[in-house]
Amino acid sequence: MSAKSRRHIIGLHVENKPGVLARIASLFSARGFNIESLNVGETENSATSRMTIAVLGDDRALEQIRKQLSRLIDTLKVTELSDLPCVETDIALVKVKAAPERRGEILNLVNIFNARIADVSDRHLVVEVSGNEDKLTSFISLMGSYGVTEMVRAGRIAMKRGD
Fold it and tell me: CA–CA distance from 84 to each of 36, 76, 108, 151 (Å)?
């Protein structure tokens, strides 16, 4: 990563149609950008979807991608969220080994991180944790000492504050 590279969070409103995601992802890959995080979901209007894309790159190169995204026929709005006041969160499900004698310790950490137990089995707990990237990284690191057997992160979502 060059000295001018930084993390960019791009919010896109797009038409909710097949192929839109592939076209947008190909714009990034064709220019050599690795998408760190991509989250897509329907908005309050079922005809549109909202994408939140996190990518590392220099400002100039990302400006070109933003312009190209704006020209795609299915793109309704492109917003660079990195420099705006935003609400931002990530979510993860973490399956951790949970022997009966260690469950109390794990539950204490779940409470400290304001997480929740999503599933319980004889030997495992599945914990749902959400928050900023540092919070999730810290929680996952602490769970590592108990034995994380599976994990999935949904990716960052972000929204501009206010109007």
Answer: 19, 19, 35, 30
User: Which stretch of DSSP H or E encloses residue 21?
Assistant: helix 20-30
Instruction: Indicate if 116 and 128 belong to the same structural domain.
Output: yes
Domain hosting residue 28, numbered range: 5-84
- Mode of pairing for the β-strands spanning 116-120 and 86-97: unpaired
Q: What are 98-145's pLDDT values in tens digits?
A: 999 999 999 999 999 999 999 999 999 999 999 998 999 999 999 999
User: In angstroms, what CA-CA distances link 26 with 19, 51, 122?
Assistant: 11, 14, 44
* Domain end residue (candidates: 68, 84, 100): 84
Residues linked to residue 150 through DSSP beta bridges, in sequence order: 95
Task: Report yes or no: 66 and 11 within 8 Å, Cβ to Cβ.
Answer: no
- Residue pair 126/118 in contact by the 8 Å Cβ criterion: yes
